C-alpha cells in the first residue's frame, strides 16, 4: 500500500503546510532563490528553475519502459515529466523540457485527470520526474486523490536537494531514484552550474541513510519501496565516477539500502558540443574500469551495454 494512503490526516496537513512554506518562499531546492509565490498568482519574479505558480507545467504524462527493470516492469512506469529544472546541465538530454521549459500548464484538477489516465493504463507506479520546483502543488493534488492511488509513488530527481524538502518527500513517496552526478565540485560548477551540488547531494545521502528505506518487491518483482542510486558516466571524468562508487560503498557499509544504476547512455546533447571535453560519447577504456570497480566493491544493481549506446 502506498505511504500516502497511510499518512494520518493531521500529519498530512502538517506536511502540506511545510511543502507550501518551502515552495512559497523559494526554499524548495539548494539554490534558495527566494522567489515569492502564491498558487494561482504570478510570482514576484521569474524563478530560475522555470516553475510556475499559475499552474503545474508538465511536458508529458507517459508510460515509460526505460527505467530500471523493477520500476518499468512490463506495463511501464507512469512518468510525469515536469517542465523546468533546478539544475542547468550543459549536456542535458531532455533540454527542451529542462532548459526551454516546454510543456503545458495544468490546473490542479486537470493534473489529477491526467494522473488518473496514467493509472488507468495499469502503470506500476507514478514516477514524478524533476518535481522539486512543484513540491507543494503536486503533493497537494496527489493528497486530494490519495484514495485512488493504489501504486507506489516514485520520486526521480537530480540529487540536488534542500534538506527540508527531502524530509517532506520521504513521507510522501515510496521509491527514490536519486542521482549522484558529481563528487568533483569543479565538474558540478562547470557542467551543471551547481557549485554547491556535492555538499547538497551528500547531505541528501545522509538523510536517506538515516531513513533506511527498505527494499521491497512484490511477488512479480515490481518495486514497491526502495532506493535506486543513479550515476551517469561522462567523458573525461573516470576519477569522478570511481570516487562516486567508493562513496556509495561506504554508505552501503554504514547501512544504507540501495541498488546502483551505472549508466553509459551519455551523448553530447544541448550545449555539450561547445565543450571539447564532453563533446563525445564515453569510451570502453573509460567505462570498463568503472564497471570493474563496481564489481570489486560488490555494489548490487545494473550496468548498461556500452555498445548499445554508441560508445567506442
- The H/E string reads HHEHEHEHEHEHEHHEEHEHE
Number of domains: 1
- Mean pLDDT equals 94
Structural class category:
alpha/beta
Question: What do you see in this structure?
Answer:
With about 300 residues, the protein is of the alpha/beta class. It has one domain (about 5-310): TIM Barrel (Alpha-Beta Barrel), CATH 3.20.20. The chain is about 35% helix and about 15% strand. It contains 11 helices and 10 strands. Strands 1, 2, 3, 4, 5, 6, 7, 8, 9 and 10 form a 10-stranded mixed sheet that branches. Helix 2 packs antiparallel against helix 7, helix 5 packs across helix 6 and helix 7 (about 165-170) runs parallel beside helix 9. The chain is globular and about 50 Å long.
Amino acid at each position: 500500500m502506498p505511504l500516502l494512503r497511510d499518512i494520518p490526516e493531521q500529519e498530512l496537513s502538517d506536511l502540506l503546510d511545510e511543502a507550501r512554506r518551502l515552495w512559497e518562499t523559494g526554499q524548495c531546492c539548494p539554490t534558495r532563490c527566494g522567489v515569492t509565490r502564491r498558487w494561482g498568482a504570478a510570482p514576484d519574479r521569474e524563478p530560475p528553475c522555470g516553475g510556475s505558480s499559475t499552474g503545474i507545467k508538465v511536458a508529458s504524462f507517459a508510460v515509460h519502459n526505460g527505467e530500471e527493470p523493477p520500476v518499468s516492469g512490463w506495463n511501464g512506469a507512469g512518468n510525469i515529466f515536469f517542465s523546468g529544472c533546478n539544475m542547468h546541465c550543459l549536456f542535458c538530454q531532455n533540454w527542451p523540457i529542462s532548459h526551454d521549459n516546454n510543456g503545458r500548464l495544468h490546473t490542479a484538477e486537470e493534473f489529477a485527470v491526467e494522473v488518473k489516465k496514467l493509472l488507468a493504463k495499469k502503470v506500476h507506479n507514478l514516477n514524478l520526474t524533476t518535481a522539486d520546483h512543484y513540491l507543494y502543488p503536486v503533493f497537494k493534488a496527489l493528497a486530494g486523490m490519495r484514495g485512488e492511488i493504489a501504486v507506489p509513488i516514485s520520486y526521480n530527481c537530480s540529487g540536488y536537494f534542500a534538506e527540508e524538502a527531502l524530509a517532506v518527500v520521504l513521507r510522501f513517496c515510496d521509491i527514490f531514484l536519486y542521482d549522484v552526478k558529481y563528487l568533483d565540485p569543479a565538474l558540478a560548477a562547470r557542467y551543471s552550474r551547481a557549485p554547491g551540488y556535492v555538499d547538497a547531494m551528500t547531505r541528501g545521502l545522509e538523510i536517506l541513510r538515516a531513513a533506511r528505506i527498505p527494499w521491497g518487491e512484490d511477488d512479480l518483482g515490481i518495486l514497491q519501496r526502495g532506493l535506486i542510486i543513479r550515476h551517469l558516466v561522462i567523458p573525461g571524468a573516470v576519477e569522478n565516477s570511481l570516487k562516486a562508487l567508493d562513496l556509495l560503498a561506504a554508505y552501503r557499509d554504514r547501512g544504507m539500502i540501495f541498488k546502483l544504476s551505472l549508466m553509459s547512455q551519455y551523448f553530447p546533447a544541448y550545449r555539450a558540443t561547445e565543450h571539447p571535453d564532453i563533446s563525445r560519447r564515453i569510451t570502453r577504456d573509460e567505462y570498463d574500469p568503472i564497471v570493474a570497480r563496481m564489481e570489486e566493491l560488490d555494489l548490487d544493481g545494473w550496468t548498461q551495454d556500452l555498445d548499445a549506446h554508441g560508445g567506442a
